[in-house]
Specification:
Its main location: cytoplasm. Catalyzes the conversion of dihydroorotate to orotate. It catalyses: (S)-dihydroorotate + A = orotate + AH2. By secondary structure, the protein is of the alpha/beta class. The protein has one domain: TIM Barrel. About 35% of the residues lie in helices and about 20% in strands. The chain has 10 helices and 16 strands. The strands form 4 sheets. An 8-stranded parallel sheet has the order 3-16-15-10-9-8-7-4. Strands 5-6-14-11 form a 4-stranded antiparallel sheet, with no helix packed on it. Helix 1 runs parallel beside helix 2. The two termini are about 25 Å apart.
């Protein structure tokens, strides 16, 4: 009833973890697998190790959101075969999130991921707070096309493009699809800031961070809806998912699968709760398959 497929991956249910919440070490994959996700998504891996930004890097906000600027901290490409091996041991598909500051870096990472036989790669073209990475690249549709095209040309596994909130996100999505990606992940955290009213300074060491959690969910729904309406693409929806109703909204807007991030910090039972709610929802509506509802709200 809850089975789905996206980017060539057949999944028992639509709920994955979002990149950035664990996933850079093999023991992290064990924790995520125990949560019950249908596929595991790594933290973004770059060619060389990155230490990230000094603390403070995370702040909980008054509106139930979270602001973070980790800075793509990760151990570098050497961990790719280790993560791939652990995912196979756990019996879970692995989507490797990769990030580069140039087309060449993305290409090399895609080659390494293919050699390690991970199940798919997700191009991080959406991180809003790492200078020279992520959103700085994804906001240029033609650069998105070049990165996606060259990556697809060397990858023997499905390529997914993760795009963030920009004025040109629909155009970037179209260019990524034109270049041959199998699916789109929409969206990432939204660039934002928090200021301490007593120290009179920005809270985060990087000043800017990525806003996540419930405040960005309606934005994610809108972007998924608009991109699905334009292209009827295969989409993984992400942004502020904290209940089964959030997942249902993204499915109705066009998502075949979803990713959960911030909610994991507050609710370790989120996957079970979502799956139980979706199952009851389908029964109430009289549907036998979640796939029958993908994009049904799009007009």
């Amino acid at each position: 009833m809850l089975e789905t497929s996206v980017a060539g991956l057949r999944l028992k249910h639509p709920v994955m973890n979002a990149s950035g919440i664990l996933g850079s070490e093999p023991e992290h994959l064990e924790i995520l697998a125990k949560q019950g996700f249908s596929a595991l998504v790594s933290k973004t891996i770059t060619l060389n190790p990155r230490e990230g930004y000094p603390p403070p890097i995370i702040v909980e906000l008054r509106n139930n959101g979270l602001l973070n600027a980790v800075g793509l901290a990760n151990p570098g490409a050497g961990v790719i075969p280790v993560l791939a091996g652990k995912a196979r041991e756990l019996g879970k598909p692995l989507i490797l999130s990769i990030g580069g500051s140039s087309v060449e870096e993305f290409v090399k990472l895609a080659e390494l991921a293919s050699e390690a036989s991970v199940d798919a790669v997700e191009l991080n073209l959406s991180c809003p707070h790492a200078e020279g990475y992520g959103l700085e690249l994804g906001s240029d549709p033609m650069l998105v096309y070049r990165i996606a095209k060259d990556t697809v040309s060397v990858a023997s596994i499905p390529v997914i493009a993760k795009l963030g909130l920009t004025d040109r996100v629909i155009e970037s999505a179209g260019k990524a699809l034109e270049a041959g990606v199998k699916a789109l992940t929409l969206i990432n955290t939204v660039k934002a800031m928090s200021i301490d009213v007593y120290t009179l300074k920005p809270v985060l060491s990087n000043r800017y961070g990525g806003l996540s959690g419930p405040p960005i969910h309606p934005i994610a729904v809108r972007v998924v809806y608009d991109v699905y309406r334009e292209y009827r693409a295969e989409i993984i929806g992400v942004g502020g998912v904290s209940s089964w109703m959030d997942v249902a909204e993204l499915v109705l807007a066009g998502a075949r699968a979803v990713q959960v991030g911030t909610a994991l910090i507050w609710n370790e039972n989120i996957v079970d709760e979502v799956l139980d709610g979706l199952h009851k929802w389908l029964i109430d509506l009289g549907y036998n398959s979640l796939m029958d509802l993908v994009g049904i709200a799009v007009m």
